[in-house]
Specification:
Layout lengths: L2 H8 L27 E7 L5 H9 L11 E3 L8 E5 L2 E2 H13 L5 E5 L1 H5 L9 E3 L1 H4 L4 E3 L6 H12 L2
Parallel strand pairs: 1-2, 1-3, 3-5, 5-7
Antiparallel strand pairs: 4-6
Helix pairs in contact: 2-6
The structure holds iron/sulfur cluster (SF4).
The site of iron/sulfur cluster has 13 residues, from helix 2 and helix 4.
Length: 162
């Protein structure tokens, strides 16, 4: 059986898409040029990797975040947004600032997980500078420890509007 026949027989495997976010209270006013398509550079500021697993799930074939116009790119210079996870450790403080400053304006910053939003379980730790929101301006917060792929995608869709 060819792969095209198999695709025809099996059909779409991704989770069905929920309706496009329309509630203005939950929708981010995107910086110019970001609507519809969002290229993100990810920075792990000091995560336990739980949030990374969920982000990987969000971009997997099952949840398929790319169908909503979001992609993860390798270089901050190719990005128009930053997705950050974990508390900001002393070792990752400067790399986080360097990455943010390498992303052209306008840009959007998305903090994923309780650690990034408010320090979570690691707040006040000796190696911790603070949450992502303590260090750089954050546009979108995705709470949870960790947030599910569906919650991450819902937040990303408030930026792309798709
Ligand atoms: S929010 Fe939870 S899962 Fe995410 S980095 Fe912090 S401790 Fe790990």
């Amino acid at each position: 059986m060819s792969w095209t026949s198999k695709i025809r027989r099996v059909g779409r495997m991704a989770e069905p898409a929920t309706p496009t976010p329309t509630n203005p209270a939950n929708t981010v006013e995107p910086p110019t040029g970001v609507t519809g398509s969002l290229q993100l550079r990810h920075v792990d500021c000091g995560s336990c990797n739980g949030c990374e697993l969920e982000i990987a799930g969000a971009f997997s074939a099952v949840y398929d975040a790319e169908q909503f116009g979001v992609r993860v790119v390798a270089s901050p210079r190719h990005a128009d947004g930053l997705i950050a996870t974990g508390v900001v450790t002393r070792n990752m403080h400067q790399p986080l600032l360097n990455t943010l400053n390498s992303i052209p304006q306008p840009r959007v910053v998305i903090a994923v997980g309780d650690c990034a939003v408010d320090g979570g379980a690691f707040a006040g730790g000796y190696a911790v500078v603070g949450s992502v929101a303590d260090v750089i301006p954050v546009d979108v917060r995705v709470p949870g420890c960790p947030p599910s792929p569906a919650e991450i995608i819902a937040a990303l869709r408030t930026v792309t509007g798709r």
